[in-house]
Amino acid sequence: MLRDSKGAEPLWPPEACITTTVAATPVAALAGCFDTVLVRRVALSRSGPGCGLWRLDIANPGVESFAPGQFMMLRPRAFALDPLWGRPFSIYALAPKTISFFIQVAGRGTAALAGLEPGAPLTVWGPLGNAFALEPDVRTLILAGGVGLAPFPAYVKKHPAPSRLSVLFGHRPPVAAYPFKEIAAAVNAEHFRECKPGDIETFIALLDERIRDYRGGLILACGPQPFLLTVKRLARKHNARLQISLENRMACGVGACLGCVTKMAVAGDSPEPAFANVQVCTKGPVFWADQIRLEGEEPWT
Amino acid sequence: MDLSVSFAGLTLKNPLLTASGTFGYGLEFMDYGDLRELGGIVVKGTSLYPRQGNPMPRVAETPAGMLNAIGLQNPGVEVFVKDYLPRLPWRETAVIVNIYACDAAEFGELAGILAAEEGVAALEVNISCPNVKAGGVLFGQDPFMAGQVTEAVKSRAGDKPVIVKLSPNVTDIAAMAKACEAAGADALSLINTVSGMAVDVRCRKPRLANVIGGLSGPAVKPVALRCLHQVRGAVTIPLIGLGGISSAEDVLEFILVGAHAVQIGTANFLRPDMAFKIARELPDACGCFRIDSWESFRGSLIL
Asked: Which of A199, A224, A265, B294 has the most CB atoms within 10 Å of its CB?
């Protein structure tokens, strides 16, 4: 068993440093900071449990391209000096005149964003971070949980061989509250709604089955932390290649504040695997799952 | 008006610096502006050896501010000198290195390494750290120890100006300032973060893994101005003001109270082009408040 320097707690899977050594896909696109305005906001569900889910379209201030998985920071001018930070969101769609985001109200910042009226000024910066791997010749499984579906409509649209793509989407609010239909129209996609206690076990069994089916392919996942922990555990069980996109809280989005770090395996001289804290905003948000240790992850044995 | 400013052996094209820990190594911000538009940058706190910093969560948003307990994560002085410094436009904009150590001897060693680097314009000494050899008391909370560190850095810094960064978490900041001045500091910067804490009543946990962190952002600006005012009355060496600056008008407030230069810190997180934006807005702000020279405006607060 591997132990940290204090000999206390197992820290890292022994094979972590020798399995995947390729970094998750870096992106060359140029980032910028822009003042722009909200064009429209669309409630995806007017009432009920899906009412905190919104699509926001902002006037495109000059972003020409992005790679699915990348994100932008949004900060309404109405924030003034409080709330302090912008908020990071995956780019959901990019058009010549608009950039779209799919957001879920989770606190003050997102509530304020969802309450903006068309024409409201915002500061935005990006596109930021890296992208999901795109391997046209490899069978690819997308696993999304809740608002973690946001980066995938663009991924599906961009993929040159949709017949090799499958999607499994888990959610609690009604599926109509998510941009699922456009995915289902293009690729083989299934969704699972968690309604009552016990459903989660059924969903995990389904994840287990799908991940086993794709162990020779590529799996991409985005969603809440417990979902990512489960997906990572199952991918490890089936020895499947998995990339996950992290949603750590961020202050700056550009790699300066060091508030969003995750533990990533690094090559070292020591025979024991080493890790370093790396910024999710600039080294991620997409990581090969076997290269990072998630917050709340069971110690390896 | 001529925006340039000279003090403590430094000449800056304008009084705007970026604060340590909020602007990385400058390189992170090159997509958002030209570093040469800034008077200088103070790079991330650098230690002799790499440090991984504290566990997560390390930052928490608070009313008009934020708490951080990053724990000085940095790749160490060797990586800074070899990999980062050569990529910075240090001939055109001052590169000031914020240094951090656990005892006076290590501070001296760091100063010695950086004194040999042509690209380093000055050293900023972070004394808000525990003195391991004195049972973990913070250097910055004891005038004698602050003086010792200042001397240790100064004795190894060669011709590099030494700026000591003062903590506001003291009973008498003027006494700290005097001790550093007496020990040979060329300038002082103030304030470092204000010690603070935030909790989450839903899960009954602190919002930072380290429990206690440093408060920064607009919320601390009145504390910073108060400290600056008290220190201005206590020492004659030049002062660099910081704490919550997020506009050109804020910059002028600190100069009015007596600062030679200022640092833009947490506001860099409000938008990554903030420092460049303030640099562009400063000339108009000077015009607006009828300022025609820094010499006549600096410290002209009417009491």
From this structure: A265
